[in-house]
Each structure stands twice: as C-alpha cells, then as structure tokens.
Amino acid sequence: MTDLSVSIVNTNSRELLLACLETLRGTTAEIVVLDNASEDGSADAVRERFPDVRVLAQEFRAGFGANHNTVIRATEGRYVYVLNEDTTADDWGFARIVEYLDAHPRVAALGPRLTYPDGRLQDSAWRFPTPLVSTLGLLTVGKLGVKQSRGDAPHAVDWVMGAALVLRRDALDEVGLFDDEFFLYSEEVDLQFRLRQAGWDVHYFPSATVVHHESQFSADIPERRINEMWRSRHRYWRKHHSGAGARVAALTTGGQYALRAAAAPIARRNPRRMLLHARDSWGVSGPGLRELADEWNGRVGAPTRR
C-alpha cells in the first residue's frame, strides 16, 4: 500500500489539469485523474503526456463528492489527497505531510496553506457555519472570529477547503466518504463535521503551500453557481441543525451579503452577485450546476443524478 494517493477530478479544464500534473511530475504518490466527461481532449492529453498517471474516463457528469468517492474507492493510499485541477505547487511537501500525519494519528483531515497566483494568502480554514457563528458573522460582516487560516505553525481548525485536502483513509472507513447528495459545495464541510463528531481532528498545515488558481468550468454561469452553493448550504444546515437553527444560519448569512450589496456602490462594485446570494438565503428556486450536468447527461444519453 502506497502512503499517499492523489485524487484529481477534471471537467473541461485541460490546460489547468496539465499544468497541475506537470508540477506533480516526479513525486512518489499514486496519482489518479477522474475525467468528468470532458469534451476538450483532457483524458487523451493526460495519457499522452503523463503515462504514469491513471485516468478514469467517465462518460457521464457527476458532482464533486461522488467523483472523488470513485477515486478514493479505486486507490489504496493510507492518505488520500483530494486536489483541484486548478492547483499547482513548487513543492507539494508530500513527505512532510505524511510524516506529520503519522506523528498525529488522530488528525483525519489536513489542509495546506493556499495562496493566489500573485502570492497573496487565500483564506482556507474556517469555523463551522453554525447558527451562532453565522449570527456573529452578521454582526461583523464576516470579518471576525470565522477565519482560521493564519499563522505559520500547524494548528487545529474546524474545517479546511476541499481544493487541497488530505484525508486519512482509516477515518473515512469509520465515518464514510463524501455525501454525494451534495453536488458541489459544502461536501467537505459536511465530511469534516462528521469527522469531528466522531472524535477526529482537522489541522491547518502551512508547512506546505499550494497555489489555487480558482478557475472552473462554471465560472461563466455565476447565477447557477450561486444557486448550487446555496442549495448545498441549506442542505448542510438542515442535516446538522434543527429547522430553526438552519433558518437562523441561512438568514444571518444572507444578511451579510445584503450588507455587502448595500456597500457595493461605495466601493464601486456591482452588487448583483451579493443580491443573488441574499435572495438564495431565503430559498433556491432556480437551476444550479446539478441541473447543468443532468442536461448534459440527457443530451448524450448518460445517467442523471449521479
């Protein structure tokens, strides 16, 4: 059994995927790419340039959690590094990560420091969005007591972003994999909440740095993306909190976006996206990214709701 398996899911992001794999070249990890029915030649390009990378070419489109679950089940590493295709690193730090996890056997999830391409820190570790935390976020417009990705030493946090997330297989065997009823967004929060409930720890690990380019196939359809984000948020809150708590968390989070929308003209920004977030905090009625995948699957005769 290898120490570390890398799970990468790709949808029509050929050049980003190839750039990611280029920085992974020469590492000792098991690398598996699940191609989510891309139409840009991604799978063939990986096979040609990176023959040591295993490619799972999927003929239908599924969500983040379902796709990574497929890779997790198909790999053997003691640790699984869930990784976005829009990430790169000068030094992935795999040996340091494995050494740290071996030395901390109750850490089930680990998140590296994330930066933007220009070197700025990207916030990537957060407190769980409980009704209380969401209410405090409204009082400070999300500026106080929520972010946990600060400092240069590894430390315990509530949850880390799924763009670069190392998971302990033994812990997954205990609590289960991603809940694939989340199509996209909040699935990593849900998994880490379940891990914490089972007595496992989550750590932020700034000793390894990953560049997150934040480019995704859905970037040109912001309203669908926002709808999917809020559909997942509502599901997360209903799953882990009471009905009243879920409503408080949603409305106070939506209130933060409403305040930002009100301040947008002063900052010379378009408030439209903030207003879409505020609207969806009450309820989501429009189509999201799941429907987009279902539409594609329907056109090619592939299964839907996978």
Structure description:
Helix 2 links the parallel strand 2 (30-36) and strand 3 (54-58). Helix 9 packs antiparallel against helix 10 (272-280). With 306 residues, this protein is an alpha/beta fold. The longest helix has 21 residues, at 243-263. The chain contains eleven helices and twelve strands.
In short:
The protein has eleven helices and twelve strands.
Please specify the SSE layout and strand pairing:
Blueprint: E1 4-10, H1 14-24, E2 30-36, H2 42-49, E3 54-58, H3 64-74, E4 79-84, E5 87-88, H4 94-103, E6 107-115, E7 121-122, E8 125-126, H5 131-140, E9 155-156, E10 159-160, E11 164-168, H6 169-175, H7 187-197, E12 201-212, H8 222-240, H9 243-263, H10 272-280, H11 289-300
Parallel strand pairs: 1-2, 1-4, 2-3, 6-12
Antiparallel strand pairs: 4-11, 5-12, 6-7, 6-11, 8-10, 9-12
Helix pairs in contact: 1-2, 5-9, 8-9, 8-10, 9-10
String of helices and strands: EHEHEHEEHEEEHEEEHHEHHHH
Mean pLDDT: 94
* Range of helix content: 40-55%
Task: Give me the Rg, rounded.
Answer: 19 Å
* Structural class by SSE content: alpha/beta
Unreliable stretches: none
Number of strands: 12
Q: Termini distance?
A: 29 Å
Number of helices: 11
Q: What characterizes the major β-sheet?
A: 10 strands, mixed
Form type:
globular
Query: What percent of residues are in strands?
Result: 15-25%
